Amino acid sequence: MSASDLDSLPQTLRLKSHPSARDRCTSAVTFSPGTILLSVPALVTVLLPAQKGHRCDACNRQPQNQSLKRCTGCASYWYCDTICQNVHWKTQHRKMCKDYNLYYASSRFQNLQAHERMDALLLSTLCARMSQLELGRDSSISTFLSLLPGPIEIDPPSICGRYSISADQIKSLYSRFGNNNFSMHSHFNVFGHGIFPLASRLFNHSCMPNAAVKYILSPSQLVRMEIVALRQIMPDEEICIPYIDPALLQTRAQIFELTYGFNCNCTSCTFLGILGRIPDPPKNDPELQNLTNMLEEFVRNMGEISVLQTGQSRGFPSQLLCVFHETFLGDLSEKFSASSHEGPYDIALKAGTTLTALYRLIYPSNYPQIGIHLLEMAKTAWNQWMQANSDDEAPKALALQALTLARGILTVFGSEGDEHNGPLLEIQTLGHLLQRRDRHSGTET
Length: 445
Ligand SMILES: [Zn+2]
Ligand SMILES: [Zn+2]
Ligand SMILES: [Zn+2]
What we know:
This protein has 16 helices and twelve strands.
C-alpha cells in the first residue's frame, strides 16, 4: 500500500477487507445525498473517434465560440490553447506525435474492432505517460498496477510509439483495462475512455448503488471523476458504484463473470435469483395492458425505495416477473422515443409512464437515468400541451409534476461534463416556460 494514492484517502473514507473482493470502501461518517465523496484526476484519457477535433485532447472540453488549434506535428490532435497543448506535449504527446499518423493508418490498427482501437490508443497513451515519469515514482501508476487483472488473459494490441517498457509490463498494464477503465460521459453521453486508478481501487460494484460517477471538465486540466452520494450513506456502509447499467437485468451476470470476474451479490441480483427464470412478456395488447397497469399500481404502492433495493422478494407478484425481461424495457423505450418528439404524444406519455414505473423498480432512488427520463416526460407533456386545441390543462400538470421530480433527482447528481446545454439548464428553461407562458404564446421545445 506504500507510495500509492491510498495514502491520500480522505478521512471520511475507510478501506476495509471484503469477503470476496479484495477490499471495500466504507464511509467513516454520515453522507447526505449529493455529497461528493471523492474527486480524482484521470491518469490518461482518450476521446472517441467522433469527438476528435470537437473536443480538446488535453482537457476534453468542447470550447464554445472558439475554434480548437491543431498540433502542427501530426495535425491529428486538437487543443483549446497553448496551455492545454503544452501540458499534453510534456506529459504524453511528445512520445506519440511523430508516429501517430503512420500507426493510425497501419493495418495493425485499422484491423482492430472499435473498442480495441480505443484500448490500443489508451494503452499507447498510458505508456507515453509512464515513459515521461520516473517509473514507480508516480502514485497513480502504482495504484493502477495494484488493481486486479481481468479474468481472461488477452494479448495487448500493438501500440503507437517506442518505449523502454517491457512486453511483459505492457501485458500487465493491458490485463487491467477491461475490468477497470471507465467510459467518460458529459450529460450522460459518452465522449471518451479514461483511467482513474484510485476510483477503480476503492469502489466495488452494486446494481443498486448508493453512489454514482460523474466527470468534471475544467480548462487546462485533465478530466476529474467525482463520486457522488445518491442517498444518505451511514457510517460503516460500503460505498458502491455501478460498473455497468443495472438495467441489463438478464445479461449483467454474464458480463460480471466474463469481464470483471465476480458474481454480484447485491440486493437486486439476490432478489432476481430467488424469483428464478424470467418469462417472456406477453405479445398481445390486452395482456400487455393488464401487465402495465399492474406494474404501475405495484410501483405506486411500493413507496420510495424499490423492493430490489430492500431485497423484499416475498409477496412480489409472479405475474410481474416478465417486466424484468430486457425486451420489455427495450420495447417501452423504443415506443417512448419514437413518439416523444413528433407525437402522437399520448402514445409516448403512456409508454413513458410505464417506463417511469419500471425505472423506479430496477434503479435505486435518485438514480440519474430516472431523472433524465422524467425530464423527457416533462418535455413530451409540454409538447402535447402546446399542440392541444382544447382547454385541457392535464398535460401542463403532468409536465410540472415530471419536471419537479426530475429536478429533485438530477440536483442530487449535480452538474457534470460540458458547462453548456446540461439537463439542469433544460429543467430551468422548461420551468420558466411552464410558469410564464400560456399555451398559445410558446413554441415547442
Ligand atoms: Zn483544453
Ligand atoms: Zn502531434
Ligand atoms: Zn447485482
